[in-house]
Structure formats: structure tokens, C-alpha cells
Fold:
Amino acid sequence: TGEKAPVANPSCMKRRDFLVTAAILGCAPAWAAPRVARHQLLHVSFQCSQPLGKPVKVGVDAVSAKTGQFEVLVAEVGKEAFAQLKSASVDPFGYCKSTYLGISSPATRKSTRKVAGAARESEVYPDSFPHKDYLEVLWLERKEGAGVMLAFRVAKSMNLNKASSVIDQVCSSLEWKLT
Structure:
């Protein structure tokens, strides 16, 4: 009869149709399900669904990985340095906080995170200097004399519930191997 068949208009495609098509083609959008990646910072490894950039050295025994909204900093105190700090009556955790985070004041509150199945207390600084970001700091110590500090910096633009979930994910998957 000479009439043309109606052509589907892609601009009218419904969200559901888009997701079905994307799933069939194997190209689901990034927001459909967060990708969990394993990260290695010094001798500490963990899983994290928040994308992190390439690790950057921030001191002799400290490394940071971050995005615009979320940062993980790891600072290690090996057995020798740990013994030297202790013999000089210096708290290794306090040393790490002041050296790598510029913190000398006490935490405004405490939090609890599960690390290797055990509850560990962390220190919370809701408006940390100089960025006024949320900062949570955790200290792990080995009985043979070594320590590691984990610091999580969260920008004001990131939802704190989401950040807390990411911190829990990092802590629950944490592995710390001494060499």
C-alpha cells in the first residue's frame, strides 16, 4: 500500500527497556551495581566498592589512595621503628596521627568497626583540619611490636551513610601481612 512501518524512536525508550537492552548486551551502566575491587597499600590489602585512584606515597611508610570524595591512608610502623618509639616513650598511634594527619587533639567521638571479626574502636573527627572533612582513624597493633594506622577521609559532598558502609567494607575485608 505504500505506507511506511513505524520506526522506534530511541528518545522515547523507557528506562526499563534501556536496562534490559544493556543487560542483554553486557554493558550495564556503572550505577547499576558497584564494582568491588581489591586494593593493596603497603602491606595492607582490602576490598572497596568506592573507586580509588593510584596509590601515592605520602611519607616513608605511608600511602594514600583517593577519589574526589573518599580517601584511604595507610601508615605502617614496623617492628624496629615501633620499638624505638616505645623506648622514647612516644605513642606510635599518636606519632602517626600527628605526622600524617596533623592531628594532636583528642577525637570528638569514638566508633566501632569490625576488623578480622573483632570489634575495634576508631576515633572520629567530624570536621578535620584543614579541609573540614569527616575523618575516621583506626589503629591496629601486633603483639610482636608493629602497628598500622588506617585513616578514612570523607568529603562533605559524600553521603556519610554510604561512606560508613564503604569503611565497614574495607575493615571487614582487611588483611595486614608483615614481611
In short: The CA atoms of residues 34 and 79 lie 37 Å apart. Residues 18-30 have pLDDT under 50 and may be disordered.
